[in-house]
Design brief:
Strand order of the largest sheet of chain A: 1-2-3-8
Chains: A alpha+beta (396), B mainly alpha (382), C alpha/beta (338)
CATH superfamily of one domain in chain A: MetI-like
CATH superfamily of the largest domain in chain B: MetI-like
Number of strands of chain A: 8
CATH class of the largest domain in chain B: Mainly Alpha
Oligomer: heterotrimer
CATH class of one domain in chain A: Mainly Alpha
Distance between the termini of chain A: 60 Å
Largest sheet of chain A: 4 strands, antiparallel
Order of helices and strands of chain A: HHHHHEEEEHHEEEEHHHHH
CATH topology of the largest domain in chain B: MetI-like fold
Shape of chain A: globular
Shape of chain B: flat
Structural class of chain A: alpha+beta
Number of domains of chain B: 3
């Protein structure tokens, strides 16, 4: 080694094509070029194809009269409404079915997850059988089972099952009385809101007293009384501004009241029973992740089995469970698109089904639908991440 | 110890024998701890036993004793015409067996899909059964040789003297398995590439992988299938006519690649940094490091994850029926439309059969994945 | 090994991408050696495959007629089963050469979907089917009823129109395919099922108790059904159009699959033109001059096709009615071949 070279920092002498930085740059340029070329290829062909086949483009259809009816609408909609309105109807139906199913699936899933760990051998085994069956059968089959199998067992409208409370059950669905409110209903409603706010204030105050003195004032009865009694008095004073629209048997079927269509019921039942099996597994995994010492410690403190689960195990298990639940909720929302196979008018059915067919504009319809689901996924993830942080904060 | 002198008490007689301990083994003990440990448990146990007593005999009656095993048409399965109560009409499944398995695949050529099934089983066994050696050859067989041979078998090739069978004749279980196989054969390598891309230091590779993975994971499979069905033909020049099955295969393979990528990423993250550093210290390049050091370890960890993905894939193949591919479930539905077989009980037989087949396949794979997990867990215990 | 790989590559090409330069559809069809038809997978009498993949139906025979005209072989066809939802995209994207799948000719479809109709092979109208038990005699009595309909059809729009213009309330259940809609109606989900009357006749057969159902007298729409092709290829459009007219002309001139050989000897100038003994009508379409002979030998004339698939002697039991020749009081009319 010569004296001169000792002064300079040693630099690896590599040929330029072996230099990692140049290689990386070159590779990325190639990749970028490929991606751009692919997109350009698709774009160019699409434009050429659409032009050649004289297919309309753009969102000009959005305000055009749709001309078809939809079986379940949360907002007012008729055949005279626009395609844009039909889009919102479909989206709201998707949100409704996902929301309801998420709540029910969580309740059922947590219950079954806990039952799987039951000390009763029979109960635990039955829960296991449930989980294994519903996890290992395609969701589509489960939907067919509820829709075609169970629907087939319901009676026709003229032999409807009449349940107490003016509820009618037949192949057309479950018909219930619908509450109808008059304008004066605003008074009891306001009273209710005010009382709930007051009750929350009282509970917070009780919490502060407990922090200070260690003794919690008994406010349970007081708050319950405030929430129930005061609005009830206002309700009677306002002249009972509430009536029920009761379903009445007509020539074809009962009219009036509120109807839960079989499509909606079977989709909710299918999504709930399917997703609950996965949630149950997550709950079980979360509970098993808590060390046995926690259970033993809480038992030695004299807590009952239920209290142990509610106060000691669950709060800790939630930290494991919540991120897992997030992905279950996401897939449930995406799975709700299977409603198209049993005639539930969700976004996919209304928009990529009927609207796509009437307008023929495949690119616009499929892109909009995908964007909606992407947004829903991102929103669900954001909410669950927020919730996850809240659960994690409990740790001190 | 001065007090020791006072300790002069010596027992003169034997103590009374204590009662024997509760039995800690045997049936009685098991029943007592597992079924009747408390009042609530006893009530629940009795309730469940009663429910089972009410349900199970009827179920066995319907499924096995009263079931009709052979039938030429629906008449054999109608209680009024046979004169005794009738359970599930398994005769419907028996009569359509070939159609359920092969769809409209020409009868004389059905040895070809049969051979395909056999080759598939060999490949899967090679990769998944621990005792069979040479997993590297197994990989080459399953991911390169088998797809080519299987494709030539099913589709035919005039050079090899096999007559061409167009894809619209394929159907039933065969199509479900083809979609599942293509899904796994494409999504594993593509998923590995995407996972490596996501962990790459190159911004372009990383961001394009992230966008692709997150986009696909954010949308339902149905919309991807719709896209493959109605949009993909617009993306290519007019003269190319992508086959309808091929389009669905592309959609399914892309969709599961994104999920596979996330599974593989989990494996890559589980490999300690030391492994990467050691490989680099040995002077291995990126690909050498990945192929020789990192991936073999990472893939081994994620085998259960891959199998779970495959369960999801198999269940989701049923969705292709919505875009008019005649898969296993769709051919069953199509047979239910046959006027000869139309009675109210028939759908139960069809759907129940489908459910049993899917359950056996998925549950089998799930058990396998659990056993691998258990084995891996012991591997790490020193 | 090399040969093996080459075989695989060739097979892969034939499997995925039937590459064809953007020549005319007829040249593509001739190069492939078969006509690719979009067909209905579930309407008996019009298009339905059996378990072995043999297709039957009026629309299906039209497809075979085109193949017979081009290749002198009615079996050189490939049927692609399409649901009503993806039929037009399949045609527009080039997946099929011609769509013959009881599709209604409407203005908006022709002006926005990039497709064009080549004729009307069946004059139809939308009707309703109800269970006899309900004792409904007219569609106007359906106020408050629940009605099953298939998604993505003109039927869906006509239904809304009918109830809107008659100011009646109703509930709709929209199913993805006609099979699903029929199944839902059959299981009692709906009071009535609506589709084209030809479809109703076919679907009634697939009910678990066909005799329990009646078709109501009202026809609430015009449903001209016919074959359609992509816009921008007039040669192919002409070919499909004139195959349809050839079937009608053959019936008009009494040329059937049984007597066509005798008719070839006929001195009647009209028959000589039609059968290609005079003039070059086939060549002007890019076919051989014996094209009508090929069609009639392959599938028969319009009457034979009708009687074989949907006529009174079939389970569908439709009469010619509007679909009789113009000379017999119907609407089927072919411009002269001259």
């Amino acid at each position: 080694m010569s004296v001169e070279s000792a002064g300079r920092p040693l630099e690896a002498k590599v040929v330029f094509y072996n230099d990692p930085r140049i290689r990386s740059l070159f590779f990325q340029l190639v990749l970028l070029a490929l991606i751009v070329a692919l997109f350009w290829f698709a774009y160019d062909n699409t434009v050429a194809n659409l032009k050649k086949r004289n297919i309309a483009q753009g969102f000009g259809f959005w305000n055009v009269e749709a001309g078809f009816d939809i079986s379940q609408t949360l907002i007012s909609y008729s055949a005279a409404s626009s395609y844009g309105r039909a889009f919102w109807v479909g989206l709201l139906n998707t949100l409704l079915v996902s929301g309801v199913s998420i709540v029910l699936a969580t309740l059922l899933g947590v219950m079954i997850g806990i039952l799987r760990l039951s000390k009763n051998w029979l109960v635990a085994k039955l829960a296991t059988v449930y989980v294994e069956i519903f996890r290992n059968v395609p969701l589509l089959l489960i939907l067919y089972f509820w829709y075609r199998g169970v629907l087939g067992l319901l009676p026709e409208p003229r032999d409807s099952i009449k349940l107490p409370g003016n509820i009618i059950l037949n192949t057309r669905g479950l018909m219930m009385p619908m509450p109808v409110v008059s304008e004066a209903f605003i008074y009891p409603l306001t009273a209710l809101v005010l009382m709930v706010v007051t009750a929350i204030g009282i509970i917070l105050w009780a919490g502060r007293v407990q922090d200070r003195t260690g003794i919690r004032p008994k406010v349970g009865w007081l708050t319950a009384g405030l929430i129930i009694v005061v609005p009830a008095i206002v309700f009677i004073m306002a002249g009972a501004p509430l009536s029920f629209d009761i379903p009445v048997q007509g020539r074809f079927n009962a009219s009036g009241g509120m109807t839960l269509a079989p499509e909606f019921v079977s989709l909710v039942t299918g999504l709930t029973t399917y997703t609950a099996a996965f949630i149950a597994e997550n709950v079980r995994a979360g509970i098993l992740a808590i060390s046995k010492g926690q259970t033993e410690a809480s038992q030695s403190l004299g807590l009952s089995h239920g209290q142990t689960i509610r106060l000691v195990i669950m709060p800790q298990a939630l930290r494991v469970i919540v991120p897992l639940l997030n992905s279950e909720y996401l897939s449930l929302t995406k799975n709700s698109s299977l409603g198209v196979s049993i005639g539930y008018p969700d976004l996919v059915s209304v928009f990529t089904g009927t609207v796509l067919n009437q307008t023929g504009q495949a690119v616009e319809m499929v892109s909009v639908t995908m964007l909606v689901y992407l947004t829903l996924s991102l929103l669900t993830s954001a909410f669950m991440n927020w919730f996850n942080r809240r659960v994690a904060l409990v740790e001190r | 110890m001065t007090t020791s002198a006072e300790a002069h008490f010596v027992r003169q007689s034997f103590n009374e024998p204590m009662p024997p301990p509760m039995r800690t083994s045997g049936i009685i003990h098991w029943l007592r701890t597992n079924l009747f440990s408390s009042i609530i448990n006893t009530v629940m146990t009795l309730f469940i036993l009663f429910a089972l007593y009410k349900i199970v005999p009827g179920l066995i009656d319907t499924l096995i004793i009263n079931a009709v095993w052979v039938a030429d048409d629906s008449k054999a399965c109608v209680a009024d015409k046979v004169g005794h109560p009738v359970g599930i009409c398994w005769g419907f499944v028996a009569a359509h067996w070939d159609y359920f398995v092969f769809g409209q695949y020409p009868e004389k050529l059905r040895w070809r899909p049969e051979l395909f099934f056999a080759l598939e089983v060999i490949g899967l066994a090679w990769l998944l059964v621990q005792r069979i050696p040479r997993k590297d050859w197994g990989m080459i067989y399953f991911f390169i040789v088998f797809p080519i041979v299987g494709f030539c078998l099913l589709s035919g090739s005039e050079t090899l003297g096999l007559s061409i069978v167009q894809t619209h004749y394929w159907g039933g279980f065969l199509v479900s398995i083809v979609i599942g196989t293509v899904g796994i054969v494409v999504s594993v390598p593509l998923g590995i590439i995407l996972a490596l891309g996501r962990r790459s230091h190159m911004p372009v590779a990383r961001s394009s992988s992230v966008v692709l993975i997150e986009f696909i994971r954010g949308v339902p499979l149905i919309t991807v299938l719709f896209m493959a069905n109605v949009m993909f033909p617009l993306f290519v020049p007019e003269g190319w006519r992508p086959d309808s099955l091929l389009r669905v295969l592309v959609g399914v393979a892309l969709f599961f690649s994104a999920y596979m990528a996330e599974t593989v990423r989990g494996g890559l993250q589980a490999i300690p940094r030391g492994q990467y550093e050691a490989a680099q210290a040995l002077g291995l390049g990126y690909w050498q490091m990945m192929i020789k050091i990192i991936l073999p370890q990472a893939l081994k960890i994620v085998i259960p994850g891959i199998v779970n993905n495959f369960i999801g894939l198999l269940k989701d193949t049923t969705l292709v029926a919505i875009v008019n591919i005649f898969d296993f479930l769709k051919v069953i539905e199509a047979s239910l439309n046959d006027p000869v077989w139309r009675t109210s009980g028939m759908p139960f037989a069809g759907y129940l059969f489908a459910a049993i087949v899917y359950f056996i396949l998925c549950y089998g794979m799930a058990r396998y994945s659990m056993s691998v997990e258990r084995r891996l867990a012991t591997d790490h215990r020193h | 090994m090399k040969k093996f790989i080459a075989a695989a590559v060739v097979a892969a090409a034939s499997f995925g991408l039937v590459s064809a330069a953007s020549a005319g559809t007829l040249d593509n069809v001739k190069a492939k050696g078969q006509v690719v038809c979009g067909a209905n997978p579930g309407t008996a009498g019009f298009g339905v495959p059996d378990q072995k993949g043999n297709w039957t139906g009026l629309d299906v025979d039209y497809c075979r007629a085109i193949a017979a005209a081009i290749f002198n072989d009615p079996t050189k066809v490939k049927f692609v089963p399409l649901s009503s939802k993806d039929r037009f995209t399949a045609l527009a994207s080039g997946e099929v050469d011609v769509l013959i799948r009881n599709s209604t000719w409407t203005m908006s479809r022709e002006t926005t979907l990039g497709v064009i109709w080549a004729g009307i092979n069946f004059y139809d109208g939308q009707g309703f089917m109800v269970n006899k038990k309900l004792n409904v005699k007219s569609a106007k009595e359906l106020a408050g009823a629940t009605i099953c309909v298939q998604q993505g059809t003109t039927t869906e729009l006509n239904l809304a129109d009918f109830f809107r213009s008659n100011k009646l309330e109703y509930k709709v259940v929209t199913l993805g395919t006609s099979e699903e809609a029929v199944k839902a109606y059959d299981s009692g989900r709906c009071d009535a099922y609506t589709t084209d009357r030809s479809g109703l006749a076919a679907d009634r057969l697939s009910m678990s108790k066909p005799d329990d159902h009646v078709i109501l007298p009202e026809i609430i729409s015009k449903e001209p059904l016919g074959p359609l092709v992509r816009q921008g290829d007039d040669q192919w459009l002409n070919l499909v159009k004139w195959v349809h007219y050839a079937l009608l002309t053959a019936e008009e001139d009494g040329i059937t699959s049984k007597n066509v050989d005798e008719k070839l000897k006929s001195d009647d100038p009209e028959i000589k033109r039609v059968l290609g003994n005079e003039g070059k009508f086939g060549e002007s379409l890019g076919l051989s001059n014996a094209w009508v002979v090929q069609i009639v030998k392959g599938v028969g004339n319009y009457e034979e096709i009708f009687e074989r698939n949907v006529g009174p002697n079939t389970p569908i039991q439709l009469t010619r009615a509007s679909n009789a020749l113009w000379s017999k009081g119907g609407l089927q009319y072919a411009p002269p071949i001259r």
